[in-house]
Amino acid sequence: MNGTIGAAPSAADFEALARSAFARIPDPFAQHLNGITVHVEEFADEETLEALGIEDAWELTGLYQGRPMEDESVWVAGELPSRIVLYRQPLLAEWCETGVSLEALVTHVVIHEVGHHFGLSDAQMHALEGQAH
Questions:
Q1: 18-131 is classed in which CATH architecture?
Q2: What span, in angstroms and rounded, lies between the C-alpha atoms of 94 and 103?
Q3: pTM of the model
Q4: Using CA atoms, how far apart are residues 25 and 59, in angstroms rounded to an integer?
């Protein structure tokens, strides 16, 4: 080993990991994920942090933006599609600090945010995450 460090994973790398995580989500949940998009940003913006009551952008690794499935209606129109945002820099920091694989971290965040789409509790999200590995 020559002691050099490679480049940090790119936004495209994060998107690929997120797609892989989506592909492992089991039915019946997988049937209801059409239309949810994944986006990668470096950090959450100030408006998002303020709305969530979070002071430090390093604390937010992902966010679900959209209407929970239980609140969807044929009478709702003109809304943007639901989306999951992964925040690259906080995820990279957690990866370095914890030693957990980046794939496992991204999968955890994706599953958690998908859980918000379904209106799941934290306990239900953990069970779903266990099935997606």
A1: 2-Layer Sandwich (3.30)
A2: 12
A3: 0.79
A4: 25
